[in-house]
Amino acid sequence: MTQQERILLHLQDEPTCGTSFLNWHIPRYAARIHELRAKGHQITSERCKIEYHHHHSPQTVYTLRNHSWVTEDVR
Ligand SMILES: [Zn+2]
Q: Which residues contact 15 (CB under 8 A, 6 or more apart)?
């Protein structure tokens, strides 16, 4: 499974914080998300407000907006 596919799977589950991708050893997640957007996936980003994360610097949460397209793409 490629890193792009792994990121997509996580995003299909729930909005995902950038630090989570780091934990899953996808250090270049920003570039992968850029590529996924270029393929037509609607992924929005906003500042992480997950209560228990307690970031020292602002982090980004990514949210997948169009599940139907994704299902089609993965098939
Ligand atoms: Zn976070």
A: 61, 62, 63, 64
* Ligand 1: centre distance to CA 50 (Å): 6
Q: State in Å: Cα 51 to ligand 1 middle.
A: 8
Question: How far apart are the CA of 75 and the centre of ligand 1, in A?
Answer: 30
How does pLDDT run across 7-36, given as a tens digit for each residue? 999 999 999 999 999 999 999 999 999 999
Res 71: pLDDT = 53
Total domains in the fold of the chain = 1
- CA–centroid distance, residue 54 to ligand 1 (Å): 7
10 occurs within a structural domain:
yes
- Establish if 8 belongs to a structural domain: yes
Question: By residue range, what is the domain housing residue 13?
Answer: 3-70
